[in-house]
């Protein structure tokens, strides 16, 4: 028991000694701090973003140089932009040496805020931050400057374009114009359009409005050229439709380019062991189609000798009673008889193409809808 007491006394004296030494040699770590000398400033305090100005600068943030730090370090600047508090923000951007401002366009700011959860057509406060970080002999706190701007975003509005002319089955009056489908990708707004629909023999061009004269787009020097006209005129050169049916149009205002042509069929499928597809309907094997060459449908297949096939088109909902593309003659040899006929549902006789020994193997089957022909090319 005495031994234990002696050990306790030694331990207590040691603790007292350590405590007195700690009070005498109290160590405090102080990190160098610096007040904001950069004074981050926006070019506007409030702004309403506009689709019409989407490529123009919305806000420019500028700042003064940061103070030199005592750690002999090189200062690197970072910029950050987001919602107040910056917990919801874009990743900070490291800036090149000597840069003292950061600008953002109407479109980019609109898109950024939407990506951060701000609805189109609403107002929100944003916060910007410039960070001056110095890496040198020892760590120092970075110098930081912040500012805020009130921003109202815009809703992306459609930029309509209409097909008009005598080729329009609804009538040649501008008020009957057919609206094309606008393709919006990033900043590409009001430039690219596509459309698939029925046209009759006649001519066509495009107008920006069916209710007032806002200009037109007509034929250029060739079938793929496009011309912008400030007003609608009867003298506009129009595109020609020589065969009524289903057409495809792709139009690019920026490139002044148009691809248009006879498509003929909305869909073409294959069925039959002759092209390696089970005799089941509806068929799940569809021909590929490229809008850049609208009249052409292709299918990669493995043909089988002494087997036949036919091609459902447009609508398979009636099963075996649906419309089929067929040869003109029974058991037609594609290499000798390449004509195609589009037969209605329930057509009789049940004409099919027959694959020969020479045609068996890996092939590409092609339908030319404009000329109503079929071809088979061995790989």
Automatic annotation (TrEMBL):
Identify the stretch annotated as signal peptide in this record. Answer: 1-21
SusE outer membrane protein domain residues: 31-130
Q: Which UniProt keywords apply?
A: Signal
**Entries under Pfam families matching the protein:** SusE
UniProt key word Signal: yes
InterPro entries xref list: SusE
Q: Which domain of life is it from?
A: Bacteria
Name this protein carries in UniProt: SusE outer membrane protein domain-containing protein
What species was this sequence derived from? Answer: Draconibacterium orientale
């Amino acid at each position: 028991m005495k031994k234990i007491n002696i050990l306790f006394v030694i331990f207590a004296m040691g603790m007292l000694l350590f405590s007195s030494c700690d009070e005498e040699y109290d160590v405090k770590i102080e990190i160098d701090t610096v007040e904001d000398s950069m004074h981050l400033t926006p070019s506007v305090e409030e702004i309403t973003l506009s689709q019409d100005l989407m490529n123009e600068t919305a806000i420019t943030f500028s700042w003064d140089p940061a103070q030199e730090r005592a750690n002999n370090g090189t200062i690197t600047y970072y910029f950050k932009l987001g919602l107040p508090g910056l917990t919801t923000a874009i990743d900070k951007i490291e800036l090149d040496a000597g840069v003292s401002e950061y600008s953002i366009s109407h479109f980019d700011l609109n898109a950024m805020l939407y990506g951060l959860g701000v609805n189109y057509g609403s107002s929100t406060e944003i916060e910007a931050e410039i960070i001056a970080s110095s890496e040198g002999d020892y760590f120092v706190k970075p110098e930081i400057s912040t500012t805020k701007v009130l921003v109202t975003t815009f809703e992306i509005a459609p930029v309509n374009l209409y097909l008009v002319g005598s080729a329009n089955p609804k009538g040649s009056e501008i008020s009957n114009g057919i609206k094309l489908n606008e393709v919006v990708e990033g900043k590409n707004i009001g430039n690219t359009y596509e459309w698939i629909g029925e046209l009759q023999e006649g001519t066509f061009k495009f107008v920006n409005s069916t209710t007032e004269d806002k200009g037109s787009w007509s034929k250029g020097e060739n079938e793929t050229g496009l011309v912008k006209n400030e007003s609608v005129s009867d003298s506009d050169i129009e595109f020609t439709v020589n065969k009524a049916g289903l057409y495809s149009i792709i139009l690019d205002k920026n490139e002044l380019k148009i691809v248009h042509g006879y498509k003929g069929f909305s869909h073409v499928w294959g069925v039959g062991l002759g092209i390696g597809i089970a005799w089941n309907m509806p068929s799940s094997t569809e021909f590929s189609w490229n809008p850049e060459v609208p009249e052409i449908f292709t299918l990669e297949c493995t043909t089988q000798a002494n087997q036949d096939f036919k091609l459902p088109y447009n609508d398979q909902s009636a099963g075996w009673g649906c419309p089929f593309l067929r040869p003109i003659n029974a058991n037609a040899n594609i290499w000798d008889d390449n004509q195609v006929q589009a037969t209605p549902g329930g057509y009789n006789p049940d004409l099919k193409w027959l694959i020969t020994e020479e045609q068996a193997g890996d092939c590409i089957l092609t339908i030319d809808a404009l000329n109503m022909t079929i071809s088979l090319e061995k790989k």
